Amino acid sequence: MQLDVPKLQQQPGSIQVGAEKIEEDFTMARLYISKMKSEAKSLIQHCAQLESSAAENNKKLDEAENQLSACKLLIQQVRFACQTLIIHTHSLLEL
Asked: Whole-prediction pTM value?
């Protein structure tokens, strides 16, 4: 069994039209690649800014946690001092 394959008739102008179409497709591909490179560079810069910001925020968070710990310790010391004063006041009033 043989398949009937139609033969393409190439006209002189059709080859040039095909070449122009291929050139246009390559141009579109180059433009798309250029756009993607630009977007990738933009994303890399944005990522670097976010990483820098995150590092700075982590540093600030560590400082705030240290201050919080110092404040908690100070509060405990003041409570202990208040309790001691109350105990001494009661013992003086009992005399």
From this structure: 0.57
